[in-house]
Write a structure and sequence with these properties.
This protein is an all-alpha fold. The chain has one domain. The chain contains six helices and no strands. Helix 3 runs antiparallel to helix 4 and helix 4 runs antiparallel to helix 6. The radius of gyration is 16 Å and the shape is elongated.
Length: 126
Amino acid sequence: MRGFLLAAAAYNILWGVFIGWFPETFFHWVTETVCETPSVITWQGRGVLLMAVIYLICAIHPGKYWFIILFGSITKIAGAIWFYFAILETEVGKRGIFHLLMNDLIWVPLLLWITYQAYQYKKLKP
């Protein structure tokens, strides 16, 4: 569990820095257009960095912070829905699908599994 959460933190740090420092590049790549980049993309990068910190904290003691890991999986689902409607505007190309799958939806089952395992551990320890 800890190893996966550390990997999730590292992945989110890298992805958040990329989105935050290069929002135009990210937006043009994922939408496959040359439209003006909305300012909310920079905030998305900051949100990804915040989730990296949360995963890092959860990696210290998953059993104690199992509910925060659950929150992380919920934010992945909500983030994918928001990104689909607000940024991609329901027109998804190959890069948009790749982004939604690799950066949001692939993590959800793993985070839910960790949540379940951490909760079971929490129940065993008084």
